[in-house]
Amino acid sequence: RGAYTGVIAHWLHTREPEKKETTKVKRRRKTTKPKEPEAKQGDYLIGTDENVLVLNRTYANRSNAERAAKMNWERLQRGVASFSLQLAEGRADLYTEMPVKVTGFKQPIDDASWTITTLTHTVNPDSGFTTSIELEVKIDDLNIE
Predict the structure, then answer these.
(1) From 20's CA, which of 7, 62, 79, 96 has a CA 20 to 30 Å away?
(2) Residue 38: its pLDDT value, please?
(3) pLDDT exceeds 80 at position 31
(4) Cα 74 to the chain's mean position, in Å?
(5) Average of pLDDT values for 122-126?
(6) Strands of 52-59's sheet, edge to edge?
(7) Higher confidence at residue 21 or residue 31?
(8) What pLDDT, on a 0 to 100 scale, did the predictor assign at position 121?
(9) What span, in angstroms and rounded, lies between the C-alpha atoms of 40 and 23?
(10) SS3 content of the chain, % helix, strand, coil (to 5)
(11) Is 63:11 a contact under the CB 8 Å cutoff?
């Protein structure tokens, strides 16, 4: 999952614009620039081309292919690193999607920005109020081009 360096989405534009009949009008029309036709087919790459995930679906146009490639790239990046914690004392102030900084682990873990993905609060007679947290690496610094 973390070994992919990019995503490729294929697209093929098959819909041809239909020609419309022109009618003559006495008033003066605004001149508009002729619309450049979209390319008929192509590939869209996000990330680098070293080890790419190729989406097996062919999309209807470039914008749909671009959107699918970005979505899959972000999904791949989200699952790169995750871990869970069980807090001895519950923390009711925590919520999902909250940015978190951790300390007391290895340096790369402490340096990373994390996001809470799953949060479970538990109350029982033996251990009282506890909180279980699942974290993933925050991908807000992801460079999508």
Answers:
(1) 62
(2) 55
(3) no
(4) 3
(5) 92
(6) 41-47, 6-12, 52-59
(7) 31
(8) 94
(9) 29
(10) 15, 35, 50
(11) no
